[in-house]
Write a structure and sequence with these properties.
71% helix; 318 residues; 3 strands; mainly alpha; 9% strand
Length: 318
């Protein structure tokens, strides 16, 4: 019995030794296996470069085997339906956004056309007369073309009516200043009044520049140009004198009224203003100003100031 057991153990040990030796032997891959491994490696590398994880052999095997499972098929179908629904919602949202943008652009286009009509001095036609915004925009643009045509005809007529004396009015001098203005209105008197106002605006600008220039020269000649209080006061007095001059003192040099094709009137006017009156008012205000009195003697000794006094004495009899 003992011999039998010993014999069995000996055979078993010998078997295990032979098996271990066979396991340690290196089995070389076949050419087919080498090509397969290279292909697998190449595809795995490309998948990894795309930021994904390659399937394992078990995953590939199980997915292929379970591809016919009814539950998995149902889940995949549900997934496709959900994706389709999400795409429809996305498309609908994009369509709504596009429509909203289109409506906004239409509204903006309408406002732009209306502004242009208002700029041309006319009133845009009402929107309720049209069934769609596109038709309304087209009608507004047609209105603009008609307005421009009328304006062009008016401009041509105005140019034909512009008098020669308006285009080449007197240049003026140190003693007299001229300014011109024109205006259009359905009312004849309003047309004239607005033309005078436009001329007075130009007159006040020219007069303000003229007096300020002489003031700056006088201040520098007197050596008091660093006195900011004095300069501010003299500018204030200039503004007062100019404002008074635009209310009184001017006279109409020449004027002409021309009827236009649309029933309106165009007035051309040139006004005349004796600068000596403005200079006299300016010097009087300087004399009466306490802010200027401290430097009055220095100012009177300048050539610029003496010129002003000379203009006043020669042309007003002062």
């Amino acid at each position: 019995m003992i011999k039998t057991i010993f014999k069995t153990l000996t055979l078993l040990s010998l078997f295990l030794m032979l098996t271990a030796q066979q396991g340690c032997q290196t089995i070389s891959p076949t050419p087919k296996q080498i090509v397969k491994q290279d292909m697998i490696k190449e595809v795995r590398t490309q998948i990894e470069e795309l930021g994904a994880t390659p399937l394992t052999e078990d995953e590939a095997k199980y997915k292929g085997a379970l591809g016919k499972d009814k539950y998995i098929i149902a889940l995949e179908k549900q997934l496709l339906e959900i994706k389709a629904l999400k795409q429809e919602e996305k498309n609908a949202a994009k369509k709504n956004a596009d429509e909203a943008k289109k409506e906004k652009n239409r509204a903006s286009a309408i406002q732009d056309v209306k502004k242009e009509i208002l700029f041309l001095g006319e009133t845009p036609m009402p929107e309720y007369e049209f069934t769609s915004e596109d038709k309304y925009i087209a009608a507004l643009r047609k209105q603009i073309e008609e307005i421009k045509k009328v304006k062009s005809e008016e401009e041509f007529k105005i140019n034909a009516e512009i008098p020669e004396w308006y285009q080449s009015m007197p240049q003026g001098s140190e003693t007299v200043m001229y300014a011109r203005g024109s205006a259009t209105s359905a009312d004849l008197d309003n047309s004239e009044q607005r033309a005078v106002e436009n001329a007075l605006i130009k007159l006040s600008t020219q007069m303000n520049n003229r007096i300020n220039t002489k003031t700056n020269i006088a201040v520098k000649e007197a050596g008091v140009d660093a006195d900011l209080t004095l300069k501010t006061e003299m500018k204030r007095i200039t503004s007062i004198v100019v404002k008074q001059a635009t209310v009184t003192g001017y006279k109409i040099h020449k004027t002409k009224m021309a009827p236009l094709a649309n029933g309106k009137y165009r007035t051309f006017i040139v006004i005349e203003f004796p600068l000596s009156l403005a200079y006299k008012a300016y010097l009087t205000n300087l004399e009466n100003s306490t802010s200027v009195s401290a430097n009055m003697d220095k100012l009177k000794n300048t050539e610029a100031f003496k010129e002003l006094e000379e203009y006043v004495n020669n042309f007003t009899g002062a």
